[in-house]
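Protocol check, entry for the methods section draft. Step 1: assemble the input record (protein sequence plus ligand SMILES). Step 2: submit for complex structure prediction. Step 3: store the C-alpha cells unaltered in the notebook. Ligand used here: zinc ion. Step 1 record:
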Amino acid sequence: MATIPTGTPDASRRGCQGDESTRGHTSRVFLIHPRMGDSVIEGSTNFACPICETHRLNDYIVVGRGSAPGGVKNFPVLRCRRHGVEFADAPPLPVSDDDRRASLDCLYGTSMEPEFRYVDFMDRVEAVVGRQPGGLLHDVGCGNGQLLFEARRRGWRVQGNDVVSVVRSHIERNGIRCLIGNLSELDLEPESCDVVTSFCVLPHHLTNPTQDMQAVERILKPGGWFVLQFPANGLFRRVGKLVYRMYWPWRPSAFSRFILANLYEPGGHQFAYTHRNLAEYLRACGFGEVAFAPYYPALRFTLARFHARPLWFRAGAFLAVALLRLAAQTFRLPNHAIAYARKAS
Ligand SMILES: [Zn+2]
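Step 3, stored output:
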C-alpha cells in the first residue's frame, strides 16, 4: 500500500464555542423558527448536525441567511455549537429527474473519453489504495458514469448508484451495473467492495447522510477504503462568510445573501464540513484510519455553475474565482479536499 497523503487537520475551526461574528447574536433564532407560546429560545431545525443529531435550535449558532436567485429564498444557515458542522436549514426545492440530468450534463459532462478530472481523481485514489486489477470499486452518486469508465479502463471491476434514474440506461448500455436509489436502500452484498468512491456527493449533498455513510462502511471489505472528494473549509468559504459579516446583522444585502447561498445551498452543498468534524463523523460511522489531502479542481469546473449567466457576470466570476484560487494555493487553504477513510481490518 502506498503512503497516505498527509493533510493538515483543520485546527482553525472555532465552531464549538462560536466566534466573534456570531457570538451575541443567538437571539436571532427567534426570528427564524418562532413558535407560538415560546418564552425561551426553543424550536426545532429542519435538519441536524449528523454527529450529535440534535434538532434543538438552541444547540446551533446562526451563521447568516442565504438567498439564491431562482432557488430557495432567505434560508437560515446554522452551525452546530459542539461540532462546527454547518448547513442550510431549508429543504431543497422539488427537482425533476430531467432537470437533474441536465444539471449533471452541464456540471460534469457526458463524454466517455478519459477526462482530466477523473484521470486525476483515480490517480489520487490509486496513490493510496494501490492498483488492484479485478478489485471491485463502487461509486456513490455515479452520475453519467465518467469515474466508473475511467476506473474500468484501469482494470477495476466497477458498479455505481445514483438517485437520478435517467442515468441508468446510458451506463448499463455500456456494460456497467448501475443501481438507482440511495445506497442504504439498495440490496448490496456486505463486505463486497475493495473501494467506495464519492466525487462531491457524500456526505455534504445529502440532507440525512448517516444511513448512506454507514452503508458505505457495510459494503466495504475489512481494510477497504472510502475515498471522497468534498468542499473543504478553505479560502472560498472563509472569504464568503467574511463578506457576509461585513453587513450582518445590520443590513444583509442581496449580494451578501447570494454569496452565502453559493456556499450553502438547499439541494446542493447542503452541509459544510471541516477536516476535523468530517474525521469525527467518519469515525462515528465506523471507519478507523482517516487522512486528508488538498484538492484543487480546474477552474472551468468551478465556473460551470455560472454557464447561464451573462458574459459580464461570467467574466467577473472568472476573475474572482481565479484570484481566490491563487490565494488559496498561496496560503494553503484549499477549497476542496479528498478524504481517505479505511475500514478496520
Ligand atoms: Zn453536532
